């Protein structure tokens, strides 16, 4: 485990981690995916009773007062078990914004988005299944925020590669009452959203590796397990190495965020590295996994495709792989030879 991983592990309660995994494993066992993905209100209510819906919210505002280490484990547990639920969008994005600006937080499932100059946001996670949406838009050189009922917005349904709602949201911003939002909060929102997807990709990569190892160990070809063939071993080891690199980069970014309360001078670089590593790792893991499993990995009977498609979908949200590669490159060039080491080591 990396130093950042050790920091994270020291912060986590083993009983809480086990409970999170058990909740999602039990749900997935009794709710195999069928049809379009929607927010399961029964699951949501159960998670709310357990204090997991607003895990990081302050106790004064009705939350559980947990840290980002706990919510990262919660997000990862859902992803590992193939359970699609907008916990991150609700807790660490939408409700966090409301709490930061001192707005009341009534019980309602939320997501958040930033509207462009036309009052439109595309690929908004879970908007069509939310009850309220926290919208941010530019106004007089700054930003305003409003917590709106979905009926006040124009929502056009869409979906990502695995069928999660990714919708278009539009509003007439000139008619909206808004609360001023500091620019720093908008920047934090973007970094938090990006890191959430990196956490999810890493969880999917770990599950992909688990499924590939399981298959290669159990499947025989020419009288011996697939895992005994050198070519298969190479595919598995490359997948493991890429998954480990992505996880280490993501844990480092998470630790940097927690230590600096999301305000570290090098935090954007750390998140960019995490997203870049996770994005490239997804390419290797998806390619190698489907080579090892062959056609069976694409069938409805096998779960591999649930995770390979998820990894590809999530790595492209809140910034493409190319975007985050460019962020890493720009930061390294700006630091120059004298500042590059401190940029990496901080």
From TrEMBL:
Q: Which UniProt keywords apply?
A: FAD, Flavoprotein, Oxidoreductase
Which Pfam family, any one, appears in the UniProt record?
A: Acyl-CoA_dh_1
Query: Which GO molecular function entries does the Swiss-Prot or TrEMBL record give?
Result: acyl-CoA dehydrogenase activity; flavin adenine dinucleotide binding
Which cofactors, by name? FAD
Lineage top rank: taxon: Bacteria
- Residue ranges of every copy of the Acyl-CoA dehydrogenase/oxidase C-terminal domain listed in the record: 199-319
Give yes or no: UniProt keyword Magnesium. Answer: no
Keyword Isomerase, does the record have it?
A: no
Instruction: Give the PANTHER family listed for this entry.
Output: ACYL-COA DEHYDROGENASE (PTHR43884), ACYL-COA DEHYDROGENASE FADE28 (PTHR43884:SF20)
Regarding protein family, the annotation reads:
Belongs to the acyl-CoA dehydrogenase family.
Its protein name is Acyl-CoA dehydrogenase
Give the organism's phylogenetic lineage: Bacteria, Bacillati, Actinomycetota, Actinomycetes, Mycobacteriales
């Amino acid at each position: 485990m990396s130093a950042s991983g050790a920091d994270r592990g020291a912060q986590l309660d083993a009983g809480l981690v086990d409970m999170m995994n058990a909740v999602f494993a039990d749900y997935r066992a009794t709710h195999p995916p069928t049809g379009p993905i929607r927010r399961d209100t029964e699951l949501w209510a159960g998670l709310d009773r357990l204090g997991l819906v607003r895990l990081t919210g302050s106790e004064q505002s009705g939350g559980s007062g947990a840290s980002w280490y706990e919510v990262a484990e919660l997000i990862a547990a859902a992803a590992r078990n193939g359970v699609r639920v907008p916990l991150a969008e609700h807790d660490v994005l939408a409700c966090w914004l409301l709490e930061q600006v001192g707005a009341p937080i009534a019980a309602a499932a939320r997501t958040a988005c930033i509207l462009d100059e036309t009052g439109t946001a595309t690929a908004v996670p879970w908007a069509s299944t939310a009850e309220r949406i926290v919208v941010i838009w530019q106004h007089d050189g700054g930003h305003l925020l409003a917590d709106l009922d979905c009926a006040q917005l124009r929502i056009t349904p869409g979906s990502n590669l695995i069928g999660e709602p990714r919708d278009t949201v539009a509003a007439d911003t000139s008619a909206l009452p808004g609360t001023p939002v500091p620019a720093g909060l908008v920047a934090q929102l973007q970094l938090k959203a990006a890191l959430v997807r990196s956490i999810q990709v890493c969880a999917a990569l770990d599950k992909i590796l688990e499924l590939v190892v399981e298959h290669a160990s159990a499947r025989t070809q020419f009288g011996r397990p697939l895992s005994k063939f050198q070519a298969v071993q190479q595919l598995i080891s490359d997948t493991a190495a890429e998954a480990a690199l992505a996880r280490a980069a993501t844990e480092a970014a998470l630790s940097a965020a927690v230590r600096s309360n999301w305000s570290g001078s090098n935090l954007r670089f750390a998140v960019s590295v995490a997203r870049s590593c996770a994005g490239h790792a997804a390419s290797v893991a998806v390619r190698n996994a489907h080579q090892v499993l062959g056609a069976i990995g694409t069938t409805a009977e096998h779960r591999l495709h649930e995770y390979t498609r998820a990894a590809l979908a999530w790595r492209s949200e809140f910034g493409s792989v190319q975007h985050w590669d460019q962020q890493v490159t720009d930061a390294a060039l700006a630091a120059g030879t004298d500042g590059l080491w401190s940029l990496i080591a901080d």
